[in-house]
């Protein structure tokens, strides 16, 4: 599999597939400094900040401010016409010179062959996410008002993904799927590479 090695390759890809846009989000900027994730450095990627909700569109977190989940869809294979990887990250408060600096910590990596994405409620910017053998959860995009057009890009990407036959069997039981800390990121990376090579 060939990866994106520089910004020129990414730009050429985005000109052929403008659905991604040319913006580099905070998660990808942080991944640029982490060697083990170098394959994402120039990968076309869409990012968004979400909160988890239930099927009735109520916030799942009942103990205070809901946790913000950064979700990204990326294409690491230069020959792929659509995203092949989903990344989940959460914010950590790291003290820096007397101030709180928001940094992102990567929590989960999933090959999109194991994920089924669906627009659950377009008006409220809610997605349904089904992960093979892990269940179903719902996330709501944090927007900046009625004129915010970012959710439209997610809708277009999901429609693109769903043009192909389903490759996972969705779990019928819904469960709390908020990302948790893990020290096994490398294992997920190896899994993604293995699945992508077999395609």
**CATH topology description:** PH-domain like
The first-level CATH class is given as Mainly Beta
What is the chain-wise order of helices and strands?
Answer: HHEEEEEEEHH
Q: Going by CATH, what is the homologous superfamily?
A: Pleckstrin-homology domain (PH domain)/Phosphotyrosine-binding domain (PTB)
CATH architecture: Roll
The beta-strand count equals 7
Strand order of the largest sheet: 4-3-2-1-7-6-5
Low-confidence stretches: 165-182
First-to-last CA distance:
10 Å
Rg, Cα atoms, Å: 17 Å
Mean pLDDT, all residues: 79
Total discrete domains: 1
Major beta sheet, specifics? 7 strands, antiparallel
Q: If helices are DSSP runs of H or I spanning 4 or more residues, what is the number of helices?
A: 4
What class, by secondary structure content? alpha+beta
How is this structure best described in words?
This protein is α+β, with helices and mostly antiparallel strands and 199 residues long. The chain has one domain: PH-domain like (Roll). 21% of the residues lie in helices and 30% in strands. The protein has a 7-stranded antiparallel sheet. A hairpin with a 4-residue loop joins β5 (115-121) and β6 (126-131). The longest helix is centred in the C-terminal third of the chain and has 13 residues, at 185-197. It starts with 6 loop residues before the first helix and ends with a helix. Residues 165-182 have low confidence and may be disordered.
